[in-house]
Amino acid sequence: MSFREKYARLGERYNVLEKPLDGALCPLRRKAVSFARGKTLEIGVGVGKTLRYYPKDVELHAIDAVPEMVRIAENRARELGLNARFYVMDAERLEFPSESFDTVISSFVFCTVPNPEVAMREIHRVLKPGGRAIFLEHTKSDSRLLNWLFLKPLDLLLGALLDDNTLRETQRLVGEYFEVEHEESHYHGIVRLMVGRKEG
């Protein structure tokens, strides 16, 4: 079963699954979105957990590979009175012209994307020169002990449940494609917030 099918089955229950983590993660989502300016693309919007944090002057476009998730996010945007456009689309195949966006945001997406390097290349392509790419991601910890005692078992569980990979080093990939302006490590690197700028 693909990650799309697994997330489609979860639907609204995804909120329940992640509810215990909201206290820790929602302030980080708010902070990540605070870097957004102008025409913004959110990659992997899911059930729309970031939507309430967007300022009204941002022109928001949001994608997800799972149609069921896109419908939930659209409903949430309507409830919030948010003017946003939603698309069913893969991160590895963004159907937008090059240099279309001032900001691209990815929030807990690169642990699931099947081909992270292709997705990163696509984000770089659709971002305008001088634009910002914002990543709030699960990553491999700086602590070997945490990786073995916590992340490795979690990786097995979430891998089976959602095709998530909690041991990816997305921060390295961000550094290969963007000039990193800001980076924060939380919970010994289990979560990182990175802001990169495209040259030019």
Automatic annotation (TrEMBL):
Residues 41-135 form the Methyltransferase type domain. Keywords: Methyltransferase, S-adenosyl-L-methionine, Transferase, Ubiquinone. InterPro entries: Methyltransf_11, SAM-dependent_MTases_sf, Thiol_S-MT, UbiE/COQ5_MeTrFase_CS. GO terms for biological process: methylation. GO terms for molecular function: S-adenosylmethionine-dependent methyltransferase activity. Pfam families: Methyltransf_11 (PF08241). This is Ubiquinone biosynthesis protein. It comes from Thermococcus celer Vu 13 = JCM 8558.
